[in-house]
Amino acid sequence: MTFDGLMVRRRVALAVRADENTDIPVLRAELEQRATDASLTLSDIASEVLPVGLLDQAVPAPTMLLPAGTEAAQARALVGPAVIRPEESVSTESATEDPTYFVVDVLVHDLRFEVEADEPAQAADLIATEGIVADAIGSYGTALGDGLLAVDYVGPLLSDRLIESVRIEIARGAGTAASQVAVRPESLTGVGVDMATEPFPAPAAIAQTMVDHVTDVMAPVPVTPSPWIGYWIGLSVLLSATMAIVLWSGFQRRRRTLVTVFEQEQSDQGSP
Q1: Which secondary structure element, helix H or strand E, spans residue 128, and what is its range?
Q2: How far apart, in whole angstroms, are the C-alpha atoms of residue 142 and residue 81?
Q3: Ramachandran quadrant class, 69 (left: phi over 0; alpha: psi -120 to 50; beta: rest)
Q4: 200 or 229, which is more confident?
Q5: Distance between CA atoms of 272 and 270, rounded to whole angstroms?
Q6: What pLDDT does residue 167 have?
Q7: Terminus of the chain with fewer CB atoms < 10 Å: N or C?
Q8: pLDDT for the residue 261
Q9: 216: buried, middle or exposed (CB in 10 Å: 19+, 13-18, 0-12)?
Q10: Contact 85/35 with Cβ under 8 angstroms?
Q11: What average pLDDT does this structure show over 218-233?
């Protein structure tokens, strides 16, 4: 990955897995109030930021990002016994299961795309109207300066190819070349991440709220085996079967050859 270092940050995310009977707006409002009381903010982020093993179990909704510098313990403190009120979150037709909260250390891209533009506001409106950048990266922010347009993105890691495509679309909106769109960290302070030395993601911390108490469980998130494993096993079996057929065919041909030679010799011996 080319765009790492200060452009990649380590953050804490809080994901909620709830059934269809849970009143998500009420749940979200309760969490936001608790965050406000703790002098924290919660911002929505795409669930793709979560570890693959967690996404294999379910797609949590909502998934929220906490501010830079927030510790996992602070996120778990937001999940208390009163987060779910039964009378507000239980359907009149069927009971709901208690939501499961995942507190996860995640990596995010914290990028700023900057480009000079004669009319920054007009360029920003054109980019928003076309919607190509939003389709590519989801939500983003804009900042307008004197002859300068900045597009800020905080979210799941983007590939180099996707970042280049975003540069092209921003450049088109500003009426310039993609090479004129700079990509830099949104902030030059703090600690970035070198993706070349980044270890495998740690397991998620699962906090299960049971209305009247909270239990924090550190449990590894099972990772579904790659579908390529089945492919290689099948290929190995196929190759083994093919080799067995080839060897058996060779043996049969050699056997027929020996029989033919033997019969020929017998015929020659019987001739006057």
Answers
A1: helix 120-130
A2: 38
A3: left
A4: 200
A5: 7
A6: 97
A7: C
A8: 43
A9: middle
A10: no
A11: 45
Give the DSSP letter string of 222-262: P-PPPHHHHHHHHHHHHHHHHHHHHHHHHHHHHHHHHHHHH
Task: Describe the crossing of helices 160-174 and 120-130 by its angle, rounded to 10 degrees.
Answer: 120
Please report which confidence band the pLDDT of residue 95 belongs to, taking 50, 70 and 90 as the band edges: very low
Q: Is the pLDDT of residue 132 over 60?
A: yes
Cα–Cα dist 156/88, whole Å: 32
- How far separated are the first and last CA of the chain, in Å rounded? 85
What pLDDT was estimated at residue 225?
44
Looking at residue 221, its pLDDT comes to 38
Closest CA to 143 of 163, 162, 166, 170: 170
Contact 254, 260 (CB under 8 A): no
Beta strands in 57-213 (DSSP E): 63-65, 100-116, 141-145, 148-155, 182-185, 205-209
Among the listed ranges 99-108, 162-171, 216-225, 256-265, which one has the minimum average pLDDT value?
Answer: 216-225
Distance CA 169, CA 183 (A): 13
**Structure-block tokens of residue 173:** 């909106």
Residue 183: pLDDT over 50: yes
Question: How does strand 182-185 pair with strand 148-155?
Answer: unpaired
How many CB atoms within 10 Å of residue 120?
Answer: 20
Q: Tokens standing for 261?
A: 């030679």
* CB-based contact 154:65 (threshold 8 Å): yes
User: Hey, what amino acid is at 110?
Assistant: D
Question: Does pTM top 0.70 for this prediction?
Answer: no
